[in-house]
Design goal:
The protein is an alpha/beta fold and 226 residues long. The protein has helices at 47-56, 73-79, 89-94, 155-163, 174-178, 183-194, 213-220, and strands at residues 3-6, 9-14, 17-18, 21-22, 25-31, 37-40, 59-63, 84-87, 102-103, 116-120, 130-134, 139-142, 200-203. It has a 7-stranded mixed β-sheet. It has a 4-stranded mixed β-sheet with strand order 10-11-12-13, with helices on one face. A two-stranded antiparallel sheet has the order 3-4. The termini are far apart.
């Protein structure tokens, strides 16, 4: 139900389809030094998922990493009223019905700053995505900035990603590129992330990349240098 990646780092993988394409979805659960849980991009809650999470510890943080990944956030916020819900500023306007306790900035919340670094990816206001580095496990968390789908049984998915030149590698889609309004700003943000010490990349769509994550991310965004 929750697959361990390393000590204190777990993922929950679920089917996810959009526009007829099978992209898959993933939530990441990380145990904080105090034993509480930090949950990135919560997926649909069911009894099994909730039981698996509860078995790990108390939920301290629920994180919406961009303005797109919010569909299930309300259910988790209701189930865990003591958890602190954090999200990009733009999500308040998009979902005024959601309980949001704090807005993400480039300074991590004090409750998890001891083990996380975070970066707003500038230049894409419609997405407003934050990347997170869990320093103890050298794990980078990416939401929609890039996919890493190496195989797919769906002809439509394979065709779409091949046309996007993203099939089989860590890279952004054409849709993501269309959201970029300021390449220089995004490039500066990415350079900051590439200065972090990480090896593993956990994406919300596709496979976990266990090794060579920094080099793969640099290669996937080489087009920003053009």
């Amino acid at each position: 139900m929750l697959r361990p990646l390393s000590e204190g780092v777990f993922v929950r993988e679920v089917p996810f389809r959009t526009g007829g394409m099978e992209l898959g979805g993933r939530m990441t659960v990380i145990r904080l030094p105090d034993g509480g849980l930090w949950i990135h991009s919560p997926v649909r809650m069911d009894a099994e998922t909730r039981a698996a999470v509860d078995a790990l510890g108390p939920v301290r943080f629920l994180v919406a990493p961009n303005v797109m990944h919010h569909v299930h956030l309300g259910d988790w916020a209701a189930a865990y009223p003591a958890a602190r819900v954090v999200a990009p500023a733009g999500l308040r306007a998009k979902r005024p019905d959601l309980r949001i306790d704090g807005e993400l900035t480039e300074t991590p919340d004090p409750g998890y700053a001891a083990v996380f670094t975070q970066q707003r990816m500038q230049g894409m206001p419609r997405l407003d995505e934050f990347l997170f580095l869990h320093r103890p496990s050298r794990t980078l968390l990416v939401t929609d900035l890039a996919f890493h789908i190496r195989e797919s049984s769906s002809w439509l998915t394979r065709t779409y990603l091949k046309l996007n030149r993203t099939y089989g590698k860590l890279a952004p889609t054409v849709l993501l590129k269309s959201l970029v309004k300021d390449k220089a700003a995004l490039r500066t943000s990415l350079e900051g992330v590439l200065g972090w010490d990480f090896e593993r990349v956990v994406v919300c769509h596709g496979e976990v990349l266990e090794r060579g994550g920094r080099e793969a991310l640099r290669d996937g965004f080489a087009w920003l240098q053009a």
